[in-house]
């Protein structure tokens, strides 16, 4: 009996010690990443305001592209993998997230937004958080497995600080790495670092986004059927969005093999498209247009233009991320859908935004949590319907090539495929 008692006491001691360690590390990561990400958000806000005051800054975009390529070359990065570098690091494929990644992605994303590239901010945030988390792990001489948890913890902290969605941020890194399973060992560090970073950012004056959906209709069979249709369209559009990015990459690699020339060419193409459109609404992240979509009034072609400009920007070597442009695309398309099919454009904008995000990231739980935090709970049934449909019908496409689809979307079956794997043989459908 004494031996049994001692064994249980050792287990309790180990569990408490491990929990205390990760609470401390999560708090430390949350503060460090929160401070860095708050500075990042502040700078993004300032350069966005500056670009609004001085629209001519757009004409310096090609020069900004040259600076971005030069900075990467000075850091010894010849082929940037973007967010995929984080996934390969967590998957254990002899990949590390270097310490210089945080200041580097900070600088190049600010350059991209200052001069009007069409890009988001989450890609930068995730890479910054992962870099800082990994660096903290190295400073404390953590083993590789524990550093992976800190990488995910840093990602949660950065996403939470930048987007102001701590619930979604806590889950997103765990869900996006391997679709179908979660690294629950990262739950405590991700949750606490997310909350700490969010509180830090709020105290620094970084206010989270929040929107109000107008005109939510009664949940009827007809309205549900319309939202199912919206989910189907968003699933297809998510595939198109990914193909736009891939196609632009192939275009640049074929005609502009030199990285400096590619960045310049992309800059000139974005300038030309902006002048042709006649508005700067599609430059930068485009959060103002998302707000307009949820209010129910955007041009019918807005989603197409954003996809095109984002693809031209990111594939040329400019930095930021794809998620906010995906939000933009989904929200503006949803607004159009609502007008065409006679259901609240505001509801459809919010629903389309989340459904498309789910389709391109393969993260239904994070999508739902973002919906709760951004829009509240009033339109929840419609949002859940669209997200679930988009998740299933978007297939195995996605933004991140290194994302692993562990379990089938159609059967309780282990498949272990990379996102966007075009050699897929169809066995999952049998």
Give structural notes.
The protein is mainly alpha-helical. It has two domains: 2-203, Clc chloride channel (Orthogonal Bundle); 221-399, Clc chloride channel (Orthogonal Bundle), CATH 1.10.3080.10. The protein has 16 helices and three strands. It has helices at residues 2-53, 61-74, 84-90, 101-114, 122-139, 144-163, 166-177, 187-203, 221-255, 259-277, 287-295, 302-315, 323-341, 345-361, 364-375, 380-393; strands spanning 178-179, 404-407, 414-418. The chain has a three-stranded mixed sheet. A hairpin with a 6-residue loop joins strand 2 and strand 3 (414-418). The longest helix is centred in the first third of the chain and has 52 residues, at 2-53. It starts with a helix and ends in a 12-residue tail after the last strand.
SS elements, strand count: 3
The appropriate CATH architecture of the largest domain is: Orthogonal Bundle
End-to-end separation in angstroms reads 54 Å
Q: What is the count of DSSP helices, taking H or I runs of 4+ residues?
A: 16
- CATH class category name of the largest domain: Mainly Alpha
**Main sheet: strands, sense, barrel:** 3 strands, mixed
How many structurally independent domains? 2
Overall mean pLDDT score?
A: 91
Broad shape? globular
């Amino acid at each position: 009996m004494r031996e049994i008692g001692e064994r249980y006491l050792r287990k309790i001691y180990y569990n408490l010690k491990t929990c205390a360690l990760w609470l401390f590390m999560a708090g430390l990561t949350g503060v460090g990443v929160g401070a860095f990400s708050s500075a990042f958000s502040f700078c993004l806000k300032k350069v966005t305001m500056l670009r609004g005051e001085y629209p001519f800054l757009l004409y310096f975009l090609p020069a900004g592209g040259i600076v971005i390529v030069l900075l990467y070359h000075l850091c010894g990065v010849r082929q940037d993998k973007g967010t995929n570098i984080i996934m390969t690091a967590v998957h254990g494929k002899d990949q590390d997230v270097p310490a210089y990644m945080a200041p580097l992605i900070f600088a190049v994303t600010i350059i991209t937004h200052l001069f009007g590239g069409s890009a988001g901010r989450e890609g930068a945030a995730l890479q910054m958080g992962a870099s800082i988390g990994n660096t903290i792990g190295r400073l404390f001489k953590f083993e590789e497995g524990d550093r992976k948890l800190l990488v995910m913890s840093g990602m949660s902290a950065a996403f939470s600080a930048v987007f102001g969605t701590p619930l979604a941020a806590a889950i997103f890194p765990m869900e996006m790495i391997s679709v179908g399973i979660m690294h629950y060992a990262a739950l405590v560090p991700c949750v606490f670092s997310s909350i700490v970073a969010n509180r830090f950012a709020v105290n620094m004056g970084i206010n989270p986004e929040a929107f109000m959906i107008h005109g939510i209709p009664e949940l009827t069979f007809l309205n549900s059927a319309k939202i199912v249709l919206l989910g189907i369209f968003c699933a297809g559009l998510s595939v198109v969005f990914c193909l736009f990015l891939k196609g632009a990459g192939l275009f640049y690699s074929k005609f502009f093999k030199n990285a400096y020339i590619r960045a310049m060419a992309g800059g000139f193409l974005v300038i030309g498209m902006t002048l042709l459109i006649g508005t700067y609404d599609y430059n930068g992240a485009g959060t103002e247009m998302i707000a307009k979509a949820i209010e129910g009034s955007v041009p019918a072609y807005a989603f197409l233009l954003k996809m095109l400009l984002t693809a031209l920007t990111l594939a040329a070597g400019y930095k930021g991320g794809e998620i906010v442009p995906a939000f933009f695309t989904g929200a503006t398309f949803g607004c159009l859908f609502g007008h065409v099919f006679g259901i609240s454009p505001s509801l459809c904008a919010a629903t389309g935004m989340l459904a498309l995000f789910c389709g391109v990231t393969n993260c239904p739980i994070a999508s739902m949590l973002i919906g709760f935090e951004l829009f509240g709970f009033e339109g929840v049934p419609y949002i859940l319907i669209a997200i679930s449909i988009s998740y299933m019908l978007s297939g195995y496409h996605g933004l991140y090539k290194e994302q692993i689809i562990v379990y089938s979307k159609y059967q309780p079956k282990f498949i272990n495929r990379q996102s966007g794997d075009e050699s897929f043989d169809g066995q999952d459908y049998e």
